[in-house]
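Quick one, probably user error.
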C-alpha cells in the first residue's frame, strides 16, 4: 500500500470531494477496480462507476469494477456490485471481495463509513478513526501494489 488519503468532508460535499480527489490523484481510471466501504446510500459508488467505466457507458474505454459494502441496504446501481448487510471487517466479506475483484485486487479502497453518532464528539471521532484503521487489514489482502486507501474522517477541535 503506497498511499493513505484522508479527505475531510461534510456529508453534503462528500461526492464532489470524492470526485475532486479521484481527479487530482488520478487513482481511479477506466478499467480500475474500486471497493467502496460504507457504500450506502451509494454516492461515492456512483462517482466510482463513472470514473472507472464499470457500467461500460464508453465502449472505447476499458471497463472497471466497483464493489460496495455496507451493513445497511444499498439501492441497486448499474455498474456496481453491492454486498449489503455485510461487515467490512469480517473475513467472510474479504473472501467474497476476492471473488468479485479481477485477480482478487483493487486499485482503490474508498471508505465513507461512519459510526452511529452518540452525541459525544470525542468518542464518535475515536470510533471513526478505529473504523478507518480496521481497513488496513483489508488493504493488505486486496489492495494492489501502488493502490490507494481513502478514508473519510470528521475534522474537529477538542474542546478546552
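Nope, works fine. Designed sequence:
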Amino acid at each position: 500500500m503506497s498511499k493513505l488519503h484522508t479527505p475531510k468532508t461534510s456529508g453534503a460535499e462528500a461526492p464532489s470531494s470524492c470526485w475532486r480527489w479521484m481527479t487530482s490523484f488520478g487513482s481511479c481510471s477506466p478499467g480500475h477496480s474500486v471497493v467502496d466501504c460504507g457504500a450506502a446510500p451509494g454516492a461515492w459508488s456512483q462517482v466510482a462507476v463513472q470514473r472507472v467505466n464499470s457500467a461500460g457507458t464508453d465502449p472505447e474505454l476499458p471497463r472497471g469494477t466497483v464493489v460496495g459494502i455496507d451493513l445497511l441496504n444499498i439501492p441497486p446501481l448499474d455498474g456496481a456490485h453491492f454486498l449489503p448487510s455485510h461487515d467490512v471487517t469480517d473475513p467472510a466479506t474479504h473472501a467474497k471481495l476476492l471473488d468479485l475483484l479481477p485477480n482478487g485486487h483493487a486499485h482503490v479502497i474508498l471508505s465513507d463509513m461512519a459510526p452511529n453518532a452518540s452525541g459525544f464528539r470525542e468518542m464518535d471521532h475515536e470510533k471513526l478513526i478505529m473504523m478507518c484503521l480496521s481497513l488496513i487489514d483489508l488493504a493488505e489482502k486486496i489492495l494492489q501494489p501502488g493502490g490507494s486507501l481513502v478514508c473519510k474522517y470528521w475534522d474537529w477541535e477538542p474542546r478546552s
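Confidence is low (pLDDT under 50) at residues 1-13.
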